[in-house]
Structure formats: structure tokens, C-alpha cells
């Protein structure tokens, strides 16, 4: 069956992400926060919440890590869709894959913002024979 989870940061941080204090640099805010663009979420709602990189971390890196996903097989492929916004001051947004019992994080997608200051959507498909985090 479909185990599709939709997450919008309205009530919590989604099961995908641990508490934000484990991820310095990320803050939960909305378009009314007075922190500059974006002034709305991907659907145009100015009171809807999203995660944003704090200006203090403008020139360093900050990570968000999901919880553990189970291995995939022919019947269970993992598809993750997310919306993101890259402003003029940002660097590169990267999605990495870390399989359990491996130390390395493999970069599976990135965008350095050719089309800046607009919401974009991305879907990535993940196959892994081991438990993994994104």
C-alpha cells in the first residue's frame, strides 16, 4: 500500500526531521516573519510555515537529516518530492544519501540556483538495499 506522508511544517517538523536544535542554522518561519523573502510558501500562502536558513549561517553549511528509511526493493521504491527556494545570497542546496553501515554521504542531487527567488519543486527516486537516511 501507499505510505505517502505529506509534510508542511504547520504542526511540527514532520517525522522526517529531528528537533531543529540538532540542526543549527535552520529556523521555522513564514512569509510574515519580517526576515525577507520568500514572503509566502510554494502555494502563495504568507502564513504557512517553511524551513529557512538563518542569516548567521549564510556562508557556512547547515544540514537537515531525515529519520531512517527502510530498504527499497522492486515493490517499494522511495520517492521524495520537496519544494525549495534559493535566494541571491544562498549557495548550493544538496540532497545526500547515507546508507547504514557506510560512513560516506553520497550526493544524489543539487541546485545552485540558476533560477533564483522563486519556488521550485523537485522529485528524487531512491533505491537502497540497506536502511538509509537522506
From TrEMBL:
Residues 5-134 form the MAM domain. It comes from Nycticryphes semicollaris. It comes from the Eukaryota. InterPro entries: ConA-like_dom_sf, MAM_dom, MAM_domain-containing. Pfam families: MAM. GO terms for cellular component: membrane. This is MALR1 protein. PROSITE patterns: MAM_2.
